[in-house]
Amino acid sequence: MPGKKTPGKKTLEKKTPAKKPSPYLLLTNIGQLLTMRGGPLPRRGRALQEIGLVEDAAVLCSGGRIVDAGPQGHVLRDPWLQKHRGQVREYDCRRKVVVPGLIDSHTHPVFAAPRLLDFEKRTAGASYQEIAESGGGIRSSVAAVRAANREQLGRMVLKAFNAMLQQGTTTVEAKSGYGLTLNDELKSLEAIHDAAGRWPGTVVPTLLAAHVVPAEFAGQGDEYIRLVCNKIIPAAARRKLAAFVDVFCEHGIFTVEQSEKVFAAARRHHLGTRAHVCQFTPSGLGPLLQHQPASFDHMDCAASADITLMARSETVATLLPGANYFLGHSDFPNARRLIDAGVPVALATDYNPGTSPSPSMPFVISLACTHMKMTPAEAIAAATVNAACALNLQRSKGSLEPGKDADFAVFDFDDYREMGYWFAWDRCTEVFVAGNAVLGSDAS
Ligand SMILES: [Zn+2]
Description:
The chain has 444 residues and is an alpha/beta fold. 34% of the residues lie in helices and 21% in strands. Helix 6 crosses helix 7 (182-197), helix 7 (182-197) runs parallel beside helix 8 (221-238) and helix 8 packs parallel to helix 9.
């Protein structure tokens, strides 16, 4: 029957979803609520275990924000709620697990096609570096992005955002980085902007013009960095298309010195900074840390001295095990070494066509538990509160506390530890953004 909803079947709003918050929402009958309350942010060391677990819980929201989240008996005694319960939309969570909307703080969604040739070569034994040297890798995505128009790219980005939402993600950082000219980088950021306007969640756009030296600048990395610093960053800032600037600081890509120039230009234009570092080789991170970046990402090969420096800073280490999985590496980021040293750790998908084509934060949480010796509690904290810190959104996102945004994901679990246990099994059944159902049988 046209328009009829199938009970229990997921429906995802395909048209422009209403961003207007519903006035009042009450989630009841929550088996386990992970409020993620407790302790200073970002979470470090043992504090990463704190998930603020409440059993038999409820959450009351008004105007897209949380009013109360805690034991159901306590929330239902709210004097305002007792008087106005008739005006409140109630949602029965049927004993499931409710967590803050997951935060994917590192993605590259602006690409035109999957890299199947590279993938096939890798299955035959070629390494990431060998593929890049033979003209594949990032450069093959660059040609396709330059040939695509803004609308085509925007559709690809929206498709990725919707796939992320289906897995419980309500906030996503999205990078450009496959354009590598002024116009193609701005076109990529505009595609992110277009998709963000048609997606109910929160999108944080990042300019990654310093992703790789484009072929036309071969052997002239400094020249390209000058273009990035003097033209591309100022244009993106002027048009308010980016919140952050990112750089791929890696042996054979951009040096620490070049990365510092990118950071300095970003700060001159009042943009935040973040960087890909130590994915394949260690770099001395001290000079970059002085710019107080929000996040250093990958960190697979970080040196001990840099870990000590990071433990004293507010910079979050964002670990991306999806890339290790997809590249078939046996080594994964050494989360224990970082956590035990007091470095705040976040997790993200690194969604991209070359090394991590997955939109699933629950899969990343599972990888963190199975390959990085993170406990389920630590992995969920790294995907919520600490990921919010990695995007400077900790005042509004990442935990379920009065005043914060009413963004939740509901999982069909009896126990939150199932988040790291099941893998390749999508168990997210409902998603709410700003107090509105955007995924699940109530979505409209
Ligand atoms: Zn990346």
